[in-house]
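name: query_chain
kind: protein
chains: 1
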Amino acid sequence: MTSTIETLSPFHLAVQVHDLAVAREFYGGVLRCPEGRSARTWVDFDFFGHQFVCHLNESKSINSVHVNEVDGHGVPVPHFGIVLDMTRWETVANRLKEEGIEFVIAPYIRFAGEPGEQGTMFFYDPSGNAIEIKGFSDMGRLFAK
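structure:
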């Protein structure tokens, strides 16, 4: 039997952004996500193999931030992100540090020595959307208890 992880389909996620040019600079430039289709009020990106769309809402603002305590850190909710293998996660973490990203939770190893051990980092895009990037040494442990 094939695991769900081995047969994942690309997800589609759409978020609001306050400025498409700024979103293009952040997702296309900083995160290096190739741009796909676009129109005057939206642009889609290849977010690590997934379809991620930024829809313009010029009145979008950061209203309130909710956090849940996880492993001693305040994790912003809602958030979205990607799970990478640990080598790629380390590469992305180092590049984002070099880019001067202001992390909400700086890259570190969460749940060290436990079944769910993972690299994690959190940051906001320029429109206040929270992003998490995770890294696993063994993708088969993604849902391990």
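note: The first strand starts at residue 12 and ends at 17.
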